[in-house]
Amino acid sequence: MIGPKIQELRKGKRMSLSEVAEQAGVAKSYLSSIERGIQSNPSIQFMEKIGKVLGVTVNELLMSQNDQAIRDQLDEEWLKLAEDAMNSGISKEEFKQFLEFNKWKKSH
């Protein structure tokens, strides 16, 4: 799944395979095999190099279109709230219970 994402980003920047490979310091043949799905498990170092040239993070390379669509709908404040909740030690189950309680409270 990562190959088509790299190819889409590369083409979006109007860069050739050769340009990206050269700027990233990776073999053109390897980059081509990733894009075509012949190789499907690139290293983190490879993705960091490619991401840097394409102007994206490794997380963005790994993110599916669905993940990106959801992320685009969330503003930074919602993302920060979710991050704060996770960092506070609250479990998913506790958070779900809180939301259910809030729904119940509003309906009564």
From TrEMBL:
<dbReference type="InterPro" id="IPR050807">
    <property type="entry name" value="TransReg_Diox_bact_type"/>
</dbReference>
<feature type="domain" description="Sin">
    <location>
        <begin position="65"/>
        <end position="103"/>
    </location>
</feature>
<keyword id="KW-0238">DNA-binding</keyword>
<dbReference type="InterPro" id="IPR001387">
    <property type="entry name" value="Cro/C1-type_HTH"/>
</dbReference>
<dbReference type="InterPro" id="IPR036281">
    <property type="entry name" value="SinR/SinI_dimer_dom_sf"/>
</dbReference>
<dbReference type="Pfam" id="PF01381">
    <property type="entry name" value="HTH_3"/>
</dbReference>
<feature type="domain" description="HTH cro/C1-type">
    <location>
        <begin position="6"/>
        <end position="61"/>
    </location>
</feature>
<dbReference type="Pfam" id="PF08671">
    <property type="entry name" value="SinI"/>
</dbReference>
<protein>
    <submittedName>
        <fullName>Helix-turn-helix domain-containing protein</fullName>
    </submittedName>
</protein>
<dbReference type="InterPro" id="IPR010981">
    <property type="entry name" value="SinR/SinI_dimer_dom"/>
</dbReference>
<dbReference type="InterPro" id="IPR010982">
    <property type="entry name" value="Lambda_DNA-bd_dom_sf"/>
</dbReference>
